[in-house]
Amino acid sequence: MAKRKRPSKGSVGGQTPKDADESNVVVLDAVRYSDEPIAKKTKWINKQRVLVLATRGITYRERHFMNNLKQLLPHCK
């Protein structure tokens, strides 16, 4: 088997150090306008929930009362 050739110290992945620096350059906009709109935050949403429970021997009147309570609570489950 033949011996491998060692890469030269100046090359990185087959590129010279000068080429490697040019590939990592980030191009920015020339001008930044102060009139650009600021990114607005979205409205905060309450993700907490309330669980409404009842006992086993509930009557129709109590069941309807619980349904009315659920309708009043926007975050009820």
From TrEMBL:
Annotated localization: Nucleus, Nucleolus
Function as written in the Swiss-Prot or TrEMBL entry: Required for biogenesis of the 60S ribosomal subunit.
Residue segments, region Disordered: 1-21
Protein name: Ribosome biogenesis protein BRX1 homolog
Domain Brix: 48-77
Gene Ontology CC: one annotated term: nucleolus
Major location category of this protein: nucleus
Keyword Electron transport listed: no
Ligase recorded as keyword: no
Annotated GO biological process: ribosomal large subunit assembly; rRNA processing
Keyword annotations of the record: Nucleus, Ribosome biogenesis
